[in-house]
Specification:
The complex is a heterodimer of chains A (305) and B (318).
Chain A lengths: L3 H8 L8 H17 L1 H18 L1 H4 L31 H37 L1 H14 L4 H12 L3 H28 L2 H8 L4 H38 L10 H9 L7 H29 L8
Chain B lengths: L1 H28 L4 H13 L2 H10 L6 H14 L12 H36 L4 H15 L2 H16 L14 H35 L2 H8 L4 H13 L1 H25 L4 H10 L3 H29 L1 H4 L2
The chains are: A mainly alpha (305), B mainly alpha (318).
């Protein structure tokens, strides 16, 4: 998952194999992106850096994230521990760096699973219509009658703590949104004359759906997916903060914030500032990247997603 | 109009029923053994089979699931909502004692979100791409990204460091002790209000920009009205309709957001008890609170839909 991926889609509407000409087109697409929305390109780079940080965590982190140093407990930031240490002497900087792994894995997992499933469901229900559509719409409405964090909490609590559980819990909250947006897109596409033409020459329903409707849904899907990444990161952090996320000692930003409150009535400021700052910067980066992708791919979708 | 109200309410009833079934399925059928939750894994293994069976019978967990579900419905109808695993207080009493605080927070935060969001949107929309517009857009993007509970923790810490001030931790009712009550409520309300204001400012800005380009606004200007009444009397009422709907959807954001935010502030409200329930894996409390929050969310959204239909004849006569 790198930032280059979405842009590839802009520059090459038809899937292309990586060859010199293809690479040049990708580079041109990226340049175009940077020129049209420099702000988004900048935050896209930040997002790429965060992804890099997660991948290269063992190299970047100055200390082991789980190793306690009992000679240096609850120390404010110093030169040795740039972000300070927590109550049992673990280096906060290393934990923040490793925390990006949990956040991004959960967010990407939830989007790949939940948003995609929702999108495919929306595609099918919008395209097939009829009773299936009616039933799907009702199910989606029922799912949406829970505020999403509460639904995620209930599911995470019921299934017991763990990486997989958190991903499933957040995915389920993403399904209705994916379904709604893509269904609306499909409903308008269905009326297009090129779809009618495809039907006219005798293409089967499945073929029309896969070859003519699906490719047009990729742009809205990408926009939706980047926005959902941000939402998923916040929900994951909230779950960790409430004690139903990925169980400790795995360092996640939400767990770190929850731990800071266990220190006593007044949490040390460095235990609060840095993990929360990491959440904010990451969410900001993905949201602004998403905005930029939306502006380029489809200005008409402004406000719709 | 009447048929619209009836249809909306009927669907609301169905939703309430389905939500209750979903909550029951998620929290009572999915989880493993509730005794493990109560006694912990270690305590659970120490229990004999007879003890286990006794506890299950006491908690009403050895009945068939359908009977358990009907018992729950009976508890809801009688209003006491069953008991917590760990505490003597019935869930109904807990809601009555702690609910008002959270309701106050929710109400204040919605009011605040409009007071902040709408003027910011007007400033933005009247001069697109001006400095004011860019600053307010940046702020709303920033507040969309900041998790409310983290902002809450920062506010608590900041107040402590700078003023040595901490909001009272014990609950206080608005009528008995309004000063203490407001001190407790203000923090969470501000955090949740700003979070919503960011969404509202964004939505109201784009909605206003769209309405300002409409013919009837140009006509109003052309017949000689000055800018101010055209905006406030002609453009705003129409531009704010979608914002009302959004505000209803954001209620979900407030209800759910109040849980971590109340945890961050240590507010003794219902959100905090939900946090405790989750933390202790207290299925009974959780089930009732999830149901309560969803019902409030559904009913308020129906109320908002009806308000919109009342305000907007285009929907009423559809």
């Amino acid at each position: 998952m790198t930032v280059a991926e979405p842009e590839t889609q802009i520059a090459l509407p038809v899937a292309a194999t990586p060859n010199p000409a293809g690479l040049r087109r990708v580079a041109r697409g990226l340049r175009l992106f940077a020129r049209r929305s420099p702000m988004s390109a900048f935050w896209g780079c930040i997002a790429a850096l965060i992804v890099f940080m997660a991948v290269a965590a063992p190299v970047l982190a100055p200390y082991e994230p789980l190793k306690s140093d009992f000679r240096a407990m609850t120390r404010p930031p110093t030169e040795r521990h740039v972000f300070g240490t927590d109550q049992i002497g673990r280096d906060v900087l290393s934990r923040v760096i490793y925390g990006s792994r949990a956040s991004l894995t959960v967010a990407i997992g939830a989007v790949l699973f939940g948003t995609t499933l929702g999108a495919l469901w929306g595609l099918a229900s919008g395209f097939l219509g009829g009773r299936f559509d009616l039933l799907s719409q009702r199910i989606i409405e029922f799912l949406q009658s829970f505020p999403d964090l509460i639904l995620a909490m209930a599911i995470a609590m019921a299934l017991g703590a763990g990486f997989g559980t958190v991903i499933v819990a957040i995915s389920i909250t993403r399904i209705p949104f994916g379904g709604r947006v893509i269904r609306a897109v499909v409903l308008s596409l269905k009326e297009m004359s090129y779809v009618e033409a495809a039907r006219g020459v005798g293409a089967s329903k499945l073929r029309v759906m896969a070859r003519h409707i699906l490719p047009q849904c990729i742009a809205p899907y990408l926009i939706l997916a980047t926005t959902h990444l941000g939402v998923a990161i916040v929900i994951e952090a909230a779950l960790g903060f409430l004690g139903v996320g990925i169980p400790p000692p795995t360092p996640t930003w939400g767990n770190m914030l929850a731990d800071s409150l266990n220190a006593g009535l007044i949490p040390p400021w460095w235990l609060v500032l840095f993990p929360g700052g990491a959440i904010t910067v990451t969410v900001l980066a993905f949201n602004l990247l998403g905005d930029g992708i939306r502006d380029i791919l489809d200005p008409r979708l402004r406000g719709a997603v | 109009m009447y048929s619209y109200i009836v249809r909306r309410l009927a669907f609301g009833l169905v939703t309430v029923f389905v939500v209750s079934v979903l909550v029951f399925v998620i929290l009572r059928i999915l989880p493993g053994d509730p005794l493990v939750a109560i006694f912990g894994m270690e305590g659970f293994t120490k229990l004999t089979d007879v003890e286990r069976a006794n506890y299950m019978a006491q908690l009403g967990l050895s009945d068939p699931l359908i009977v358990q579900y009907l018992h729950w419905l009976r508890d809801i109808a009688s209003g006491n909502l069953g008991h917590s695993f760990f505490r003597a207080e019935s869930v109904g009493d807990m809601i009555a004692r702690r609910g008002p605080l959270t309701a106050e927070i929710a109400f204040l935060s919605v009011v605040l979100s409009w007071i902040v969001g709408v003027p910011v949107a007007i400033i933005s929309a009247l001069k697109p791409n001006s400095i004011g517009d860019n600053v307010s857009r940046f702020l709303s993007i920033l507040f969309l990204a900041i998790p409310g509970f983290w902002l809450g923790m920062l506010i608590v810490l900041g107040l402590l460091f700078v003023f040595g001030y901490r909001a009272p931790l014990a609950g206080a009712s608005l009528f008995d002790d309004p000063v203490a009550n407001l001190q407790i409520v203000v923090g969470p309300a501000v955090v949740l209000g700003l979070g919503q204001a960011a969404y509202i400012a964004r939505m109201a800005r784009s909605s206003l920009l769209e309405v300002i380009r409409e013919d009837y606004v140009r006509t109003a200007r052309a017949k000689g009205l000055s800018r101010r009444p055209v905006i406030s009397r002609h453009a705003l009422p129409n531009a704010l309709l979608p914002v009302i709907t959004l505000s209803g959807i954001l209620l979900g954001f407030v209800l759910a957001g109040s849980i971590p935010v109340e945890r961050a502030f240590g507010t003794p409200g219902l959100g905090y008890s939900m946090f405790i329930a989750v933390y202790e894996r207290d299925v009974f409390v959780m089930q009732n609170l999830v149901f309560l929050y969803s019902i409030i969310f559904v009913l308020l959204n129906i109320a908002i839909d009806l308000t919109i239909a009342w305000l907007d004849p285009r929907i009423r006569y559809q």
